[in-house]
Write a structure and sequence with these properties.
The protein is mainly alpha-helical and 263 residues long. The chain has 2 domains: 24-90, Winged helix-like DNA-binding domain superfamily/Winged helix DNA-binding domain (Arc Repressor Mutant, subunit A, Orthogonal Bundle), CATH 1.10.10.10; 95-248, Four Helix Bundle (Hemerythrin (Met), subunit A) (Up-down Bundle). 66% of the residues lie in helices and 2% in strands. A two-stranded antiparallel ribbon has the order 1-2.
Amino acid sequence: MARSTPLAPMIGPDGVGAGTTVRSPKTAELVAGTLRRMVVDGQLKDGDFLPNEAELMAHFGVSRPTLREAVRVLESERLVEVRRGSRTGARVRVPGPEIVARPAGLLLELSGATIADLMTARAGIEPMAVRLLAESGSAEAFDELDGLLEEHVPSGWQNDTLAETTGDFHRRVVELSGNATLSIIAGMLHEITVRHNAFLFKERRPVSRADFDKLMRSYRKLMQLLRSGDGAAAEAHWRKHLDTARELLLQGLEDVQVRDVMG
């Protein structure tokens, strides 16, 4: 059950203190900043409701329009969700990598980035994540990946959604490595990569049964290396896997730009 969190115990010396009226032209930003820091610090958790308007107004010493402006700032950052007309108020929604995926895709389009750029970046991210996963991954993490290879990825080949299901496998490999920065970058590139591969699989290079079987053998070899704990071997195998995939998928399409497959 979602909780509405009292403010007093959570405002530190750097925040806006209780009973203090902020006399700044950027009052709403200061209030939003304090609430944002509470989310970052875990004092306000995903699913929590902010205290009601009256309590917030009294605590920060601000007017209702200023408070609502502060909440709109957080809403624009996707840190809170506001249901208009609801009596429950604003609810905290901790975002995932998708919050930067769209803006990143736009920046890549505007910069003229090619799909080759994207795949090169991916080849720099995933092998390191694989090494970390091999060296410190849990049995539960490996079981989850095996489960994806048992059912999820094959369903993609059968239903013409292989780009999506293999993309899910690649993303979870990085996420399960435990490195937050790599996970965010991989999540940011995920949608663009999936769209590119879907474009290739459906329009240019349909995946044959032989190609799918070869792909699955490479994935299963990765799982063997992960479970063995041999980080160097796992990293080398995955780097070779990605290099081979890049050569095959980019053949004749080296200059295709990201915008050409983003729709």
